[in-house]
Amino acid sequence: MESILTINNLTKKFGHLTAVKDLTFTINKGNVYGILGPNGSGKSTTLGIVLNVVNKTEGNFHWFDGNTSTHDALKKVGAIIERPNFYPYMTAAQNLKLVCKIKGVDYSKIDEKLEIVGLLNRKNSKFRTYSLGMKQRLAIASALLNDPEILILDEPTNGLDPQGIHQIREIIKQIAEKGTTILLASHLLDEVEKVCSHVVVLRKGVKLYSGRVDEMISSHGFFELKSTDNSKLITLLEKHKSFNKVISKNNLITAFLSEPMRSENFNEFVFKQDIILTHLVQRKESLEEQFLQLTDNN
Amino acid sequence: MLRLLNLELQKLLLNRTSKILIFISFVLPFFVILLSSLKINVFGFFTLELGELGIFNFPVIWHLTTFFASQFKFFFAIVVVSMIGNEYSNKTIKQNLIDGLSKKEFILSKFYTIVFFSLISTILIALISFCIGLYYSSYTEASIILRETEFLLAYFVKLIGFFSLCLFFGMLVKRSAFALAFLFILFIVEWILFGIMAWKLDSNLAEKIQNFFPLKSMYKLIDQPFQRIAMSKFPEKANLVYDYGAHGYEILIVLCWTALFILLSFRLLKKRDL
Known about the structure:
The complex is a heterodimer. Chain A is α/β, with parallel strands linked by helices. Chain A has helices at residues 43-50, 70-73, 92-103, 109-116, 132-144, 162-177, 189-195, 230-239, 263-272, 287-297, and strands at 3-14, 17-28, 32-36, 58-63, 77-80, 150-154, 181-186, 198-203, 206-212, 222-227, 243-249, 252-257, 277-283.
């Protein structure tokens, strides 16, 4: 698979604080990646290093095949970091024109990209008159100007109201559907869960996991159960070899599987034991549960 | 190179404050020199005509106009420090780099802009001096006109040197107001050092050393012309004689400072985490 970004043993120290420690991962073309981690886990620092604004302490990284200099590679990348940064006294169109000049892109792209983020009718308003949501959408338009090979988004919905968050997510989904590689850094897990196929999990600058979202923890999922006779069901489950943990809370029994099992087989089995289920749901852990499990264990 | 210049010009010319300051620093001296060369009738009592004093004769005029116009450089210095300060306060420097500008290109785009405006200013001053000189001067032979045009070169180098210093201070402290304060502090420090040296060593040597200091070396490029005009009026007073020329070594000193300031600005940006 064609690699877009390769990071090898990257380390960044701010004085005594190690923000990123010995980080290694690869971004391949066509996938949607999430970088997960609590605040201060080194997400933004990592992105800052590969985007040429933070100096690395040790290790190395290269874009694409490794034969382009970082600032030339960045012309093929679209990136938004933290807050949208533009010249307040220029209009949206003028700001984008400046980005076109830096990236060497034709001006005709400006209207096209403003259309995508729904700002075309405000293109001649000064940037300082924009609301935060509009600023963030303009930042996305700016990142898309060069039809990037990879779009990097660092906390794109930070500080937005629900409507703004929804708008941004819709735009990201549209872009992902077109096959653009995306790298999304966020501490909002449902956000990552909705769009990402791969994740890198960081904590205190150390990589805990990188790979597919659904393979993040070795789990076979769990059943959520209610029945006419809960105590009998619990005893039955605890004896069964396929379950390793049973939790009962507010009349809802959660039974964790230690090996794969289909829900219809399980239903048939308990029915034969004279227990009638009133509630049966088979689930895998949500990203949030997986994430918490992963960060707790380590 | 044109791309980088174009980039910076867009940033500057769309900003109203910097537009006004650029106008003041380059166009205003042009008009003031033009106006002062006209005959001014002071309320009908007497006619003031500076041209009659012989100060608009070739080659003195090159010296006078460049000295006078360089006093207006402070306005563009504000533009230079604010063009760095604004990039930091708007965080657009970060965005520029993310968009694919290299750190070297960022500094170069600022430097090219400095050279560009210095060049325009020099051309403007050359034109106006030439026209006024032709009008007033009693000698209009090419050899006399071309004499002392090195003051134009000195003016050009002086502007570039001074603005490079501003650029460096802007990069160093990231805030426009503090950068201007630094300029003032440097001015004081240079004089304090001069004072100490004059006290410990002798004042002649101290002045020679002081001529290597950044601000003083830039000032020394074009010495004040008043003493020279007085000199031409009273040729018998020998104590008025001083070295007013714009010498090659003086230009070299300022060029060295310029290179140093640009290099330091680049080093600073390269080492910094944004």
